[in-house]
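Most newcomers find our protein records easier to grasp once they have seen one. A learned vocabulary of local backbone shapes supplies the integers on the structure line. An example says more than a description, so a record of this kind follows:
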Amino acid sequence: MTDPRLVLATHNDHKVGELRAILLAAGTVPGLLPDEVVGAARFTDVQPVEDGVTFEANALIKARALAAESGLPSVADDSGLAVDVLGGAPGIFSARWAGRHGDDRANLDLLLAQLGDIAPEHRRARFVCAAALVTPEGVEHVVRGELVGTLLTAPRGDGGFGYDPILQPEGYDRSCAELSPEEKNAISHRGQAFRALAPTIADVLRG
């Protein structure tokens, strides 16, 4: 078995696969092999308390905890949906908007109900991703990516996860959940953030 070189601070298998694909696409991080990128479950079942007030703060909390636990360079992201007419909410509370962490359907249903009487021209929103790299030696680097679009009135598509079925990116006639993984990764907030973080990851892994 190949020894891991980089740990992703998530227990979500969908996110592990998506982030691994972004980092490995077209040699984003030269020399990095698929088996060298692993999820947090390889090292711990414990998830740190995300009590930061920004996406960046929460990403750093997760990356610091995993770097300390694994002894390896660790990457974390904190992502969410910011809706203009809701003043940026759900924001950092996106994953638990309906009260229970990770209940995608309940989160979608609640948000759509809250926006039920909002006209299409006022349904502008953005996916936000803060991605952080932390090493056991104390290197820390944080970047941010955003994907702007319009919220649909009902979910569409079977791909992706989270709020993907209700955000239609600017310039597209499909929701994020209707895009292929390659299409989505090319424009997504996570794709932007992790590609921006990739040169720093490459520098760290080169030693």
